[in-house]
Each structure stands twice: as C-alpha cells, then as structure tokens.
Amino acid sequence: MRLIMIAAVFFGLGSMLQAQVTTGTISGKVVDATTNESVPGAKVWTYTDGSFRGVICDVNGMYKLDGLKPGTYTVYSKSTGYDTTVFLGVLAAPEAITFLDVKLTSNNLLTAVPIIWEAPVMDKNLPRIRITTEYIEQSPNIRNPLALLSNFSSEIQMPEGSSQVIIRGSRPGDAVYYIDGVKMTDMGTVPGAAIGSVEAYTGGVPAKYGDTTGGVVVLETKSYFDLYNAWLAGQ
Predict the structure, then answer these.
(1) pLDDT tens, 36-59?
(2) Of 64, 65, 63, whose CA–CA distance to 38 is shortest?
(3) Under the phi-then-psi rule, with left for phi > 0, alpha for psi from -120 to 50, and beta for the rest, what region is 216?
(4) Spatial distance between the Cα atoms of 54 and 4, rounded to a whole number of angstroms
(5) What is the rounded CA–CA span in Å between residue 195 and residue 152?
(6) Dihedral sign, CA of 152, 157, 163, 164?
(7) 129 Cβ partners below 8 Å, 6+ apart?
(8) 5: how many CB neighbours lie within 10 A of its CB?
(9) Which domains does the chain show, CATH number per domain?
(10) Which pLDDT score, from 0 to 100, does residue 88 have?
C-alpha cells in the first residue's frame, strides 16, 4: 500500500510539472525604416522544432507569433519591395509576450531612373531629294518615276534599258522602293496622273525603311480627293 501511495505522489508531481510548461508569444509592429509608416501584409516568421511558424501583418502592420515553446528564436521579416530583416536570439518566455518591432529597409533595391526620349536627330536632316506634284505634271517623264529622279538629280543614275536606279554609286539592285508604304522590287507601272510625289533618300535612311545602304525611293500616289479636284479643274 505504501508503495502505491508513493507512486501516486510521483505521478501527481509529474502531471503538475507538465501542466506548468506553458508557451510564449512574440508580437510587434512592422514599419518602413525611412517613413516609419506601417507595412500591411508584411510576413513575419520563425522556426520551432524545425517547423515553420509564420503570420501576415494586419492592415496596421501588427503581427503575433504565439504558441511558442520557451526559448530563443531567430525571427525573420519580409515584404514586397523590402530586404529581409533578421533578428537573432529573440526570447520567448513562458506566459509572456516579447515585443519586437521590425523596421524594413530597401537598401539593395535599384532606384528609379528617369528616361527622356528624344526623336533621332538624323531623321530631321537626312539627305533627301523630293519631287513635287507640280514638277511631275510638267515633266516629259511623267510616266516613269525613276526617270524623273535621274533627270532631277545627278546623284541618281538610271542605266539605259534598266528598271532600277543607282543612288550615289551604289550597286544595281541595292535601292529599296516603296509605293504608298508598301515595299516593292521596283516602281512598276504607275499612271503618271496618279503620282502625287516622289522622293529619294540618298544618304542616311529612316529606320522605318529598314537596313539598306543603297538608298530608298518612295512614291506616294494621289488621294481620291486629289484626283477629283484635278478632274474638276479640267472641266
């Protein structure tokens, strides 16, 4: 009987000691280190017995890590746009709250760099030959846009019997042709009455025409209203 009583006493003491093992809490607020404003949605976490324990801050930047076994912890905090902040040796005492405020920094982030775009200067003063509608209508070569160009400038040559032009000594076939913005292999046959303007880039070429060193010939036809007005003028 005596042995049974002793065993019961020890069992009761063990239960009392086990009941006295309580947990601790780590709590605080997460703020911006520069503005001291709260950081809602920031993450705060630690590890206990190898397991992850983490929370998300509320709208006021407040957090609470509770249910921690008494001991020391490494506490981490992170939010979008901020570096990870680490605290070592944070004590979680039994039946107590350890207050730990966190200040997040962004020292490793790149600062914004303003970019000011300016149109390329070369597009404003490119070597260009332009033939207007008035000259085209008075030229005997009105039916041949390339002959118009070759007779207008010595920088453009058109070999006899060829449907191509040579611009500033380039090789035959190097020139690029556009009719109303559409790239063509040559100028083809465009009715003289429909030609609005013809121009040639003899030096630098605008980027929109692609990469070429042989020059560019651009032909724009008259619009419907141009043709209609010309018909009215002839009445």
Answers:
(1) 999 999 999 999 888 899 999 999
(2) 63
(3) beta
(4) 47
(5) 16
(6) negative
(7) 149, 152, 153, 155, 156, 199, 200, 202
(8) 9
(9) 23-104 (2.60.40.1120), 124-233 (2.170.130.10)
(10) 93
Confidence band of 19 (pLDDT split at 50, 70, 90): very low
Question: In a 3-state reduction of DSSP, which class is residue 64?
Answer: strand
Phi-psi region of 232 (alpha: psi -120 to 50; beta: other; left: phi over 0): alpha
Closest CA to 129 of 200, 228, 65: 200
Per-residue pLDDT reduced to its tens digit, 98-141:
999 999 998 655 555 565 555 444 444 567 777 777 777 777 77
Residue corresponding to tokens 């005596």: 2
Tokens read off for 1: 């009987």
- Would you tell me how many other CB atoms lie within 10 Å of the CB of residue 55? 17
Read off the amino acid at residue 19: A
- Sheet with strand 176-179: strands edge to edge: 128-131, 195-201, 216-221, 176-179, 182-184
pLDDT in tens, 197-223: 888 887 777 777 776 777 888 888 877
